[in-house]
């Protein structure tokens, strides 16, 4: 019983680990700056918290120094210029150091969150599997007459089949972190079913056509007085309108798009934001599909 309960927990931790790494360095820098919680107390901050605390720390420090310099200047007017210069230099140093920490921290987190961490070979293998399913769907549509013989008419869709490989790689990354094709295959099958819909529908219509018929009619041969002296049957052709069954096979294929398929997964806002960012920066691996 204990093993069954812990397995989902480990799986959940594995899926969320990649997203949580984005915020680890933020927390570390906050603790080093002395702005964190007290001993034994745990608190979570986002990037906005770090920025605000860095700015608050700078403003507080400059305010304290300003008070001391103002007092010194009042007591010694001769040192006014020197004091103003020192205040300016101090302000620049503090502001630059604090803001640099925030900017560098954001860059570090961005690199961590914006990278495909799976091996390139695994990324390619997953992409090849999904693209292979799309090629199979295209072949199924193009060979409809061979797969479903015997119909009078075949109505095939004009549909574009394809997907953005970056969106697929980003989706698998936020779900699994470092993934393999075998691990991601069930999810790719789910996405494929949500992206594409294929239906072959057979219908029968009653239609009419003109068909040729051969008929015979009696011909009488008359003399000059109008008397029948001979008879025979003459062949002639005529046409009749007859009903018949007209069989139609209609193939309906819909491509809703991979983005629409991803939306059916019910990912939360933070995960979707990370997914979109990964796609935008191409997982820091723009060489994958050039």
> Tally of extended strands?
3
Mean model confidence by pLDDT: 74
Strand content: 15-25%
| 3D shape | rod-shaped
- Along the chain, the helix and strand elements come as HHHHHEHHEEHH
* Cα distance spanning the termini: 49 Å
Q: Biggest β-sheet: count, sense, barrel?
A: 3 strands, mixed
Report the radius of gyration as a whole number of Å: 40 Å
Number of helices: 9
Give the helix level as a range of percent: 55-70%
Task: Tell me what you see in this structure.
The chain has 290 residues and is of the alpha+beta class. It has 2 domains: 2-113, no CATH class; 120-284, no CATH class. The protein has helices at residues 2-32, 47-75, 80-113, 120-142, 144-147, 165-176, 181-195, 258-263, 269-280; strands at 153-155, 196-222, 228-255. Strands 1-3-2 form a 3-stranded mixed β-sheet. Strand 2 (196-222) and strand 3 (228-255) form a beta hairpin. The two termini are 49 Å apart.
What can be said about this structure in brief?
The protein is α+β, with helices and mostly antiparallel strands and 290 residues long.
Topology record:
Layout: H1 2-32, H2 47-75, H3 80-113, H4 120-142, H5 144-147, E1 153-155, H6 165-176, H7 181-195, E2 196-222, E3 228-255, H8 258-263, H9 269-280
Parallel strand pairs: 1-3
Antiparallel strand pairs: 2-3
Helix pairs in contact: 1-3, 1-6, 2-3, 4-7, 6-9
């Amino acid at each position: 019983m204990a093993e069954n309960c812990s397995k989902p927990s480990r799986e959940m931790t594995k899926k969320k680990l990649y997203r949580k790494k984005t915020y680890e360095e933020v927390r570390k820098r906050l603790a080093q700056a002395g702005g964190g919680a007290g001993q034994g107390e745990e608190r979570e901050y986002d990037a906005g918290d770090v920025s605000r605390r860095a700015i608050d720390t700078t403003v507080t420090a400059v305010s304290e120094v300003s008070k001391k310099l103002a007092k010194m200047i009042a007591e010694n007017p001769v040192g006014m210029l020197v004091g103003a210069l020192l205040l300016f230099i101090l302000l620049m140093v503090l502001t630059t150091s604090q803001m640099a920490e925030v900017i560098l921290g954001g860059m570090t987190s961005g690199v961590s969150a914006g990278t495909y961490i799976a091996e390139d070979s695994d990324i390619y293998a997953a992409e090849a599997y999904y693209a292979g399913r799309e090629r199979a769907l295209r072949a199924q549509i193009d060979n409809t007459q061979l797969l479903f013989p015997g119909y009078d008419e075949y109505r095939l869709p004009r549909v574009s089949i394809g997907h953005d490989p970056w969106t697929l790689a980003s989706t698998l990354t936020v779900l699994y972190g470092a993934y393999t094709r075998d691990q991601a295959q069930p999810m790719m099958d789910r996405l494929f079913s949500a992206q594409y819909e294929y239906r072959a529908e057979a219908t029968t219509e009653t239609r009419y056509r003109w068909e040729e018929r051969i008929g015979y009619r009696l011909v009488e041969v008359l003399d000059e007085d109008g008397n029948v002296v001979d008879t025979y049957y003459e062949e002639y052709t005529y046409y009749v309108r007859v009903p018949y069954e007209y069989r139609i096979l209609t193939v309906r294929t819909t491509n809703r798009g991979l983005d629409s398929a991803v939306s059916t997964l019910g990912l939360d806002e933070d995960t979707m934001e990370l997914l979109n960012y990964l796609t935008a920066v191409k997982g820091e691996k723009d060489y994958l599909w050039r």
